[in-house]
Design brief:
Shape: globular
Oligomer: single chain
Distance between the termini: 54 Å
Largest sheet: 5 strands, mixed
């Protein structure tokens, strides 16, 4: 039933072994990634490929619209494991333009279960409504909300106890916000870079 998948898998493994002998067998010794990337589930955003990273170099969490919710135990557990056990040096929240989750959140008519998941994005839209609606084209509005959403998730990462505990203990850890342009294939730095507790508003510090 999945013949094409298995054929492509064999080709991939063969190419890796030819170009980098011993690379795959070396992966069984464990993983030591420098990066945790929190991205969108969109099939058009292959995180390893767009960042030029090989297997073992990136720990990944993906969900619709790259959200970091305090109620999402999956995401929170991944952040904890990446920071406390893997000792990643960077957490990257990577959004992308043309995000279906962002479009659905702005679309307001019901989308069944996903409405609950996207509630925080609708709240974000309301907070920045004047700035967003100042643009005349829908694409520009959506792109700006995509960027605001990345910023909000960077903030949510920095609010987690595990990240703040790491900073308090002196662990080197930086949280970044990036966005991917599907059309150009390029990443855009949103200039969101937080490396210590002093860069967080006092009211949001847990220590």
């Amino acid at each position: 039933m999945l013949t094409e998948i298995f054929i492509k898998n064999e080709e991939w493994a063969s190419n890796i072994n030819r170009m980098h002998p011993g690379f795959l067998s070396g992966l069984i010794k464990g993983q030591h990634p420098d990066y945790l990337v929190i991205g969108c589930s969109d099939s058009r955003v292959p995180l390893n490929e767009i960042m030029g990273l090989r297997p073992g170099e990136m720990f990944v969490h993906r969900n619709i619209a790259n959200l970091v919710l305090h109620s999402d135990m999956n995401c929170q557990s991944i952040i904890e494991y990446a920071v406390a056990s893997l000792k990643v040096k960077h957490i990257i929240v990577c959004g992308h333009y043309e995000c279906g989750g962002i479009k659905a959140a702005m679309d307001f008519p019901g989308h069944c279960l996903i409405d609950n998941w996207l509630a925080s994005i609708r709240d974000l839209y309301q907070c920045h409504k004047a700035e967003i609606e100042a643009f005349s084209h829908e694409k520009e509005k959506e792109n700006l909300l995509c960027e605001f959403n990345v910023g909000a998730q960077v903030f949510n990462v920095c609010q987690t106890k595990i990240v703040q505990s790491a900073w308090k203990s002196g662990q080197k850890l930086t949280v970044h916000g990036l966005i991917y342009d599907l059309e150009s294939g390029l990443l855009k730095d949103l200039n969101l870079c937080i490396s210590n507790l002093d860069e967080i508003c006092h009211m949001h510090k847990l220590f």
